[in-house]
Design goal:
Low-confidence stretches: none
Radius of gyration: 22 Å
Strand order of the largest sheet: 2-1-4-5-6-7
Bound molecules: adenosine-5'-triphosphate, magnesium ion
Order of helices and strands: EEEHEEEEHEHHHHEHHEEHHEHHEEE
Strand content: 15-25%
Distance between the termini: 24 Å
CATH superfamily of the largest domain: RecF/RecN/SMC, N-terminal domain
CATH architecture of the largest domain: Up-down Bundle
Shape: globular
C-alpha cells in the first residue's frame, strides 16, 4: 500500500497542511522542533489508533483549538481509499473509513498498515516485558481483526478479577466468583499467548536472518508465557498455573499470573541482549525485528506496509542503513532527518518543514 496524501488540521503545530508523498521514498527534513515527527505521528495514527508519543489524545490538538482532523488518501491493492479521524478535546475520536463511520475498533484495524522505526523502540530491548508485548500486539492488531477483541476481553476479565482481589475478605461468594473468573482467564490467556507465541516464532525466524546478514550475530529468543519457561500447550499451562497462583493473588491483592505477564527473552550469540548487549547490537536487533514485522505484514496482506523512520536512519552506521534501504526497494518509505540528504542517499521526494509548514 502507498499513502498518497495527508491533510492535517490543528494537529500539533500544524494549522492546515496537505502533504503529498512519493510512492517510493519521501524525506521530511528541517531543524529540530519544526514538525517532522508530527507527520510520522499523524500517519501512524491510522495504523495504530493512537500516538506512539502520548497516551493522551488531547496533546495532539493544536494549542487553543477544540479539535484536530487528519485525512489520508492511500492506495491499497489498486483501490484508492480514504481514512479520516476527528480528535476532540473531550477525548472523543471519530474515525471514517471510505467516508463510513467506524463503530467498532475491530473495523478500524487492518485498513492501514505501517511499520514504525523510532529511537524509543530501543526500549523494546532495554525495558521490561510491557514494551515487548506491545510490539507484538500492535503488529498483530494490524493483521488479525479479532485479536483486538481478544485483548479487550482479557483486560476486562483481569480488571474485574482485580476488583474482587482488591477488597477480598475471604467469603465463599468471593471464592466462587474468583473460580469463575479464573476459568475464563485461563481460556483467554491461552488464546492470547498462543497467538503471540506463533507470531514470535515467525518474527524471530526472519529477524535472525536479517541480523546475521547485517552483523554476523546469532539471534535467539524464548517466549515465556506469564513470564515463565514452559513447553506445555498454553491451555494446559494456564490451567495449572492460574489456580495455583490464588494464594499469591490474595497476598498481593492483584492477579499475579496470566497472559498479561508474557515476556520474550532475547539473546545474541547465546547471551542475554538486555544484560550484555552493546547499544549497537540492541539497535541492530530492533531493526532486524522491524524488517521481519514488515515482511510478515506483506505476506499476510499481499501488499507491503508503509515504512516510517523517525530519526533512526541517520543514527545508524552506513552499512546498516544501506542494508535496510536495500531491503526496502520498491516499497514506500517515509524518513525524517535534520539533514537534507546532500549525498542523495534516499532519492525520491524531499519535503522541507518549517514551523509546521511543509513545502
Ligand atoms: N498540541 C500542540 N500544539 C501546538 N504545537 C505543538 C503541539 N504539540 C507539539 N507542538 C510543537 O510541535 C513542535 C515539535 O514537532 P516535532 O516533534 O514534529 O519536531 P521535529 O521536527 O520532529 O523535531 P526534532 O528534530 O527535535 O525531533 C514543537 O515546536 C512543539 O512545540
Ligand atoms: Mg522529531
Amino acid at each position: 500500500m502507498r499513502i498518497i496524501e495527508l491533510t492535517a488540521e490543528n494537529f500539533r503545530n500544524i494549522e492546515k497542511e496537505k502533504i503529498e508523498f512519493s510512492p517510493d521514498t519521501t524525506l521530511i527534513w528541517g531543524n529540530n522542533a519544526e514538525g517532522k515527527t508530527n507527520v510520522v505521528e499523524a500517519i501512524y495514527y491510522f495504523a495504530n489508533s493512537k500516538s506512539f508519543r502520548t497516551s493522551n489524545d488531547r496533546d495532539l490538538i493544536r494549542f487553543d483549538q477544540d479539535e484536530a482532523k487528519l485525512s489520508a488518501i492511500f492506495e491499497d491493492g489498486g483501490r484508492i481509499c480514504n481514512f479520516d479521524v476527528v480528535i476532540q478535546k473531550s477525548g472523543k475520536r471519530t474515525f471514517f473509513y471510505n467516508k463510513v463511520k467506524i463503530t467498532k475498533m475491530s473495523e478500524f484495524f487492518g485498513n492501514f498498515r505501517a511499520v514504525l522505526f523510532v529511537p524509543e523502540h530501543l526500549r523494546i530491548v532495554k525495558n521490561g516485558p510491557k514494551e515487548r508485548r506491545a510490539l507484538i500486539d500492535s503488529s498483530l492488531c494490524q493483521l488479525k481483526k479479532t485479536y483486538i477483541s481478544d485483548l479487550y476481553r482479557y483486560s476486562k476479565l483481569s480488571g474485574e478479577k482485580n476488583a474482587i482481589l482488591r477488597d477480598y475478605k475471604g467469603t465463599e461468594a468471593e471464592n466462587t466468583m474468583l473460580d469463575i473468573y479464573d476459568e475464563n482467564i485461563i481460556k483467554s490467556s491461552a488464546k492470547i499467548s498462543e497467538i503471540r507465541r506463533e507470531y514470535a516464532k515467525e518474527l524471530f525466524s526472519r529477524a535472525e536472518k536479517h541480523l546475521f546478514d547485517m552483523s554476523g550475530d546469532r539471534l535467539s529468543y524464548e517466549y515465556k508465557m506469564s513470564g515463565l519457561t514452559s513447553d506445555k500447550n498454553p491451555e494446559e499451562f494456564y490451567a495449572s498455573l492460574i489456580p495455583n497462583a490464588r494464594k499469591r493473588d490474595i497476598v498481593y491483592h492483584s492477579m499475579t499470573a496470566g497472559a498479561g505477564r508474557d515476556d520474550i527473552e532475547i539473546s545474541v550469540n547465546g547471551t542475554s541482549l538486555r544484560q550484555y548487549g552493546s547499544q549497537g547490537q540492541q539497535r541492530s536487533v530492533v531493526v532486524a525485528m522491524k524488517l521481519a514485522e514488515g515482511e510478515i505484514a506483506e505476506e499476510k496482506t499481499k501488499s507491503s506496509p508503509i515504512y516510517l523512520f523517525d530519526d533512526i536512519l541517520s543514527e545508524l552506521d552506513e552499512k546498516r542503513r544501506e542494508y535496510i534501504l536495500s531491503k526496502l526497494k520498491n516499497k514506500q518509505v517515509i524518513v525524517t532527518s535534520c539533514l537534507g540528504d546532500e549525498e542523495g542517499i534516499y532519492g525520491g521526494k524531499r519535503v522541507f518543514v518549517n514551523g509546521g509548514k511543509y513545502c
